[in-house]
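From: lab user (bench 3)
To: helpdesk
Subject: output format question, protein + iron/sulfur cluster

Hello, I'm new to running complex predictions and I'm not sure whether the block I got back is the full result or only part of it. Here's what I submitted:
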Amino acid sequence: MPVSVFDLFKIGIGPSSSHTVGPMIAGRQFACHLQDALGLQAVHSVTVELFGSLSATGVGHGTDKAVLLGLAGHEPDRIDPDQIAPAIADIRASGSLLLMGQHRVAFTEKEHLLFRRKSLPLHPNGMCFHALDSAGAELATREYYSVGGGFVVDAAGERVLNHAPALPGTAGHGQGLPHPFRTGAELLAQCQATGLSPAQVMAANEQHWRSSAEVRRQLMAIWQAMAGAVRRGCASTGHLPGPMHVRRRAAELQHQLSSAPEAALRDPLSMLDWVNLYAMAVNEENAAGGRVVTAPTNGAAGVIPAVLHYYVNFIQGTHKPNEDGIADFLLTAGAIGLIYKENASLSGAEVGCQGEVGVACSMAAGALAAVMGGTPEQIENAAEIGMEHNLGMTCDPVGGLVQIPCIERNAMGAIKAINAARMALRGDGQHVVSLDKVIKTMMQTGADMKSKYKETSRGGLAVNVVEC
Ligand code: SF4
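Helpdesk reply: Thanks, we reran it on our side. This is the complete output you should expect:
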């Protein structure tokens, strides 16, 4: 199935695309299935089993709450983050939930939400939903897999789409794109054959699904949502949820930077502080369960907004930012992310953090090179450098929370992306390691990585940092 830029950038909630957004979509999909196949009235209770990484780090990543909200009919892009706590409190107090907001069924987490250490066969992030009648007989069962970046597939490997109604002008997914590509080499070949940039190739393909005006409207909505996450992150103080009581730092950092602007004149690297700020603000907002854009995952949600803010706030002269530049940035990042989605993985549970922050760094590097006037070859080179120096990066979230090392790691990913773009722009696009080769290497490295380094919190920092 072809992947759209809007499959890679989705407005949702934190803290995790694979452990929060995907399970919410799966829960709602199962409830929709019950509604269509049986009628909700036939259902007396629902049981959910979480497998593998969803079991190991699910509570810290909000998977337990996400499946309940999904069964209750909520969607990650529409739920008001402020309504989550009251909705969960109501389910816990009543020992029941309203399937699709309509039909009350028995539900206590102790009895109906089961954590299984083993993994299901298709992917480490497996879920199995069961619906039972009043005699305890099984009426229906479904397996789903949250395969990274909020993408969900069923047991047959078929993509499960969020049940949101199609947006105006959306023709649905299908074949027949004007400029199809699955690899970096194919994207370059499309650019060479047509004279289009990667952003223009992507824009033409998007028009298979929606009008050019609708593409622009949705891209600007993504940009506004990213900017909103930075703003809210910079305005929020206090501590993040969880037993580590991690202090939110973005507000204090913004205060420091804004209150001494003259310091920037003496320190040519003060721009790095601002990029760090943008990334940390988004990832603190994500860790707090707030509204962010999956880009291409929630754990890595800060990298692309940080580099895009760098472009908007710091670039001057020939490549001065404007709305066209923002659209080109997101389209180029989407074109690169699509290649990773098609050939590798966006899941920390499958390939470690190289598949999350590593991919976001690669996407941001290529996108920045594009809006700085890079050729398709330089853009491909920037994306390749952005991944090459993230190869082997493990996923070891302390306490199973998307906080340490995730928040700072996004800041590091953003800075690395800016450097990758600059290195590529100083060259002529000719280089030894292709983007396709580095993606293949990333996937092989992820397959060789021990599972304790793949979003299980059983290795790395997760076992060497003591929770308070
Ligand atoms: S370490 Fe990386 S992959 Fe793991 S949860 Fe954090 S951001 Fe995601």
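A quick orientation on your result: DSSP finds 21 helices and ten strands in the chain. Let us know if anything else is unclear.
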